């Protein structure tokens, strides 16, 4: 695929988030939860609040919720990561379900 390199996804184009995210987010003023999927999203939105590794940032997801939820990028390359980090399925995914349900429930009841 054109967006992949040998180790996974290529970085986003320089300036893309700075140019496009603010006007798009302005159109969605009632965002309750932002999923930060992958290292590049976490670097951009968490900057110095993130941990040194993606694994540590995801492991400490509770520090960022309910506004932001750091996740590993879903990809076939992550099957090995998930096997090495069983806490992801047992701890992170149940909380992700709760946070998404709460965010959607709030939107449904307030709109």
Q: What would you note in describing this structure?
A:
By secondary structure, this protein is mainly α. The protein has one domain (15-110): Uracil-DNA glycosylase-like domain (Uracil-DNA Glycosylase, subunit E). Helices cover 50% and strands 11% of the residues. The strands form two sheets. The chain has a two-stranded antiparallel sheet. A two-stranded parallel sheet has the order 3-4. It is globular. The protein starts with a strand and ends with a helix. The mean pLDDT is 88.
Give the SSE layout.
Layout: E1 4-5, E2 8-9, H1 16-26, E3 34-37, H2 39-46, H3 54-59, E4 68-71, H4 78-84, H5 87-110
Parallel strand pairs: 3-4
Antiparallel strand pairs: 1-2
Number of domains: 1
CATH class: Alpha Beta
Q: CATH superfamily membership, which one?
A: Uracil-DNA glycosylase-like domain
Count of DSSP strands:
4
Mean pLDDT: 88
At CATH level 2, the architecture is: 3-Layer(aba) Sandwich
| Residue windows where pLDDT falls under 50 for at least 5 positions | none
Relative helix content:
40-55%
Notable features of this structure?
single chain, 111 residues, mainly alpha, Uracil-DNA Glycosylase, subunit E, two-stranded antiparallel ribbon, two-stranded parallel sheet, 50% helix, 11% strand, globular
